Amino acid sequence: EKTGKVLEEFCRCYKEQYGVALFNSVRYEIEGNGGPQAQLLHRKLPLEDHVIYSGNIFQYIEENKKWRNRFCVVPHNYGLVLYENKLAYERELPPRVLVNSAGYKILTSMDQYLELVNNSLPGVTPKSGHSPILKCPTDFPLILWHPYARHYYFCVMTGKEQEKWQAVFQDCVRHCNNGISEDSRVEAPAFTDAVRRYRQSKEQYGTWDMLCGNETQILSNLVMEELLPELRSTIGPRLKGKAPERQRTWIQISDAVYRMVYEQTSARYDAAVAGCEQERPRLESTIRTDMDQIITSKEHLASKIRAFVLPKAEVCVRNHVQPYISSILEALMTPTSQGFAEVREVFFKEVTDMNLNVVNEGGLEKLVEYMEKLSHLAFHPVKMQSCYEKMDQLKLEGLQQRFDVSSTSVFKQRAQIHMRQQMDDAVYTFETLLHQELGKLQGKDDLCKSIQRILERVLKKFDYDSSTVRKKFFREALLQITIPFLLKKLAPTCKGELAKFQELIFEDFANFILVENTYEEVVLQSVMKDIMQAVKEAAVQRKHNLYRDSMVMHNSDPNLHLLGEGIPIEWGEEYPGQPEPEPAADRRRRAKQVVSVIQDDEGALPYEMGSEALLQPHSPEPREQQEPSPGAPPSSPDGVEGIRQALAQESLGDGVEPIVQHSTPASSKARADVPPEVEVTPAPPRAESPSPAAGTACHRPGEQETGEDMPPLGGECSPPQPTGTTESGEGVQTEF
User: Fold this and answer.
1) Could you give the CA distance from residue 644 to residue 648 in angstroms, rounded to a whole number?
2) What's the pLDDT at 268?
3) Beta strand 50-61 with 97-99: parallel, antiparallel or unpaired?
4) Which residues have CB under 8 Å from 309's CB, separation 6+?
5) Which of 76, 316, 465, 514 falls 20 to 30 Å from 499 in CA-CA distance?
């Protein structure tokens, strides 16, 4: 019932905003209003046939309250795919669980997690001395926490592993949060404007932390934001058992409700989108026929609203916004510019190190090897972490409460996505220019000089594009902070008077001109001049290496963008001295890995608890430990002490610390002490590949399952089964 009410109102907003977005898209197409031309090239398919990361990690299985070693794969679309072990992955068995991490937070301490869990169910807090909701067998947990959905518990053995996995998980969250395609000029703005309009109707004007994921996930969050407090007040007092058990039950209830909401939301939203798409040809025909009249009508409406609103808006801006713009801008500029400077430094260091190694180790063959590594630098979460963490310094202090900014995470993640894009653009431009030069070079000296010359050329382009991207980011962030504040301030005196302007819109144009949208544009114009001036002054003062607007690079490399339209470069297949290229079919089935695995799979891993205890060599199912006799004292429900002892014995037996291994490209010769599968990880096969498990519809994860279009959380391939039905007693996680 709640989902139906929310979606009915949202879909009405969406239908209204769809017509406006379609008009703006067609107008942009006809008039064109692009900004400065980017100097760096943009790669279209940056991670095709690549795996970001894979490795072993402990996962806590809630069904039987035990920790299990899992093989985790992060494919190119940043889903988390958990297999029973590496053998199951290589045999193409269905994964245990699929996780879309949109909306999750990565926690690295039990105290952080327990605080969030205690706050989720007010009045239910375990007494001191009582067992908490979860025990971790090591000091290095990694917990994926979500306000509505199920939580995922992992742990590793060392601090270095924890840092590496945290960087990988954060990259997954960052990517999945950005789930709305920016390529869509109609659906995406219509959706985000409809969400904003719906929340404003509920007197919620500030930034929203849960605007993350794909459209269905965001709408599910919208429903849960209203539904969860009602559920908590209704169900919370009726929960039975000790505090940890009640907390555990509440998490399961919240997750079950979230999944039901997701399914209903998906169906309703898809129907709304289909209805708008069906109307699109008729609307677009009207727009193209009557474009001039629509623009004239809109300008007439805007002039009337401006005369009514602008005096009040200017007073509000002068008294409540203008004095704080420079403070907000400085708070944004410092960490953002430091992050982009670190991107430049990492890129410079990687290319310079490559140049030295190529000269010292053997010319072209080594160049090909290093270029294969460099080409995916932007998607290496560990190497990019030093850039991303600069944004952790972003604090708006008292400004955050004044302007109703619930969290700075929205701005942090947006800046980090820009950093990754700029790094990839710089790398792609560098490799394109170098690839063009290779045929003209004679010997190592020429190669070294050419690399250095191209590096300097790319850095100049990077500085220009970085300045352009940052100035745009600062303007957008300032608008995102100030506009909701102004709308909230002006609402009591202006919002009730807007209805009288409706009669100024011709009925034929009512689908493309909305009074509310025009009113917001007038409010935006009232503060835009001050924001533009503040950013311009920062550029004139050369603060944080920003270029002045008057400095424009026009077609400095007229042929460069033509090069970027060519076939993607395959370094390992184009030059002599490399292994024979794989057939196309084999290449599709295998994927190079961006980040090297931490562990060597030869022998038992330090935290595998004895691989023979978890997996029989020829069986995909784990073998449970022997059941204790009826007279024996019961063990801890979490098995923590037993795991600790096993871990200690295994670690002492090996006598070695885990070693971080650097991946070797597929083109180089594998070392004798490292198995080939460490360097080259099989990619998930095509969707048509048959599953080895007879009688099920399972298959290896594809785009929809592990990326932006999958359900909001982990999903199990096999049909739902009651817990404990498997032979091992572990059960299958029943997720979608």
Assistant:
1) 6
2) 95
3) unpaired
4) 490, 494, 519, 522, 523, 526
5) 316
DSSP string, 260-275: HHHHHHHHHHHHHHHH
- Tell me which H or E stretch contains 436: helix 409-437
The answer to whether 564 and 42 have CB atoms below 8 angstroms apart is yes
CA 371 – CA 572 distance, rounded (Å): 9
Q: Would the pTM of this model clear 0.85, i.e. be above it? A: no
Please, what sign has the CA dihedral across residues 508, 512, 516, 520?
Answer: negative
How far out from the chain centre does Cα 23 lie?
A: 30
User: Strand, helix or coil at 72?
Assistant: strand
The pLDDT score that the predictor gives to residue 675 is 36
Task: Put residue 133 in one of left, alpha, beta given phi > 0 → left and psi -120 to 50 → alpha.
Answer: alpha
Distance CA 658, CA 308 (A): 69
Given phi > 0 = left and psi -120 to 50 = alpha, else beta, which region is 103? left
Matching residue, tokens 């060597």: 600
Q: Please, what is the Cα angle at 250 between 247 and 252, to 5 degrees? A: 115
Structure tokens at 518: 């025009």
For 9, list phi and psi in degrees, rounded to 5.
-70, -40
CB atoms within 10 A of CB 164: 22
pLDDT in the model for residue 554? 53
Q: Which of 129, 147, 134, 165 is nearest to 56 (CA)?
A: 165
**Could you tell me the mean pLDDT of each successive run of 10 residues in the chain, 736 residues long?**
95 96 93 78 77 92 92 92 94 94 95 89 65 86 96 96 95 93 89 95 90 96 95 89 89 96 96 96 95 96 96 94 93 95 97 89 78 90 95 85 86 96 95 84 79 94 94 95 94 92 93 96 95 91 74 56 59 52 44 54 36 33 39 42 52 40 37 35 40 39 40 40 37 35
- Closest to 166 in 3D by CA, of 412, 151, 174, 103: 174
The enclosing H or E element of 61 equals strand 50-61
C-alpha span between 100 and 216 (Å, rounded): 13
Pair of tokens at residue 336: 């953002």
Going by C-beta distance under 8 Å and a sequence separation of 6 or more, which residues neighbour residue 401?
none
Instruction: Give the count of alpha carbons within 13 A of 727, CB side only.
Output: 6
Contact 637, 628 (CB under 8 A): no
In this predicted structure, what is the pLDDT of residue 695? 39
Cα–Cα distance, 50 to 544 (Å, whole number): 35
Give the pLDDT score at 689. 39
Contact 3, 265 (CB under 8 A): yes
CB 232 within 8 A of CB 270: no
DSSP codes, 457-503: HHHHHHHHHHHHHHHHHHHHHHHHHHHHHHHHHHHHHHGGGGGGGGG
Rounded Cα–Cα distance for residues 126 and 133 (Å): 9
SS3 320: helix
Q: For 593, phi and psi rounded to 5 degrees? A: -105, 130
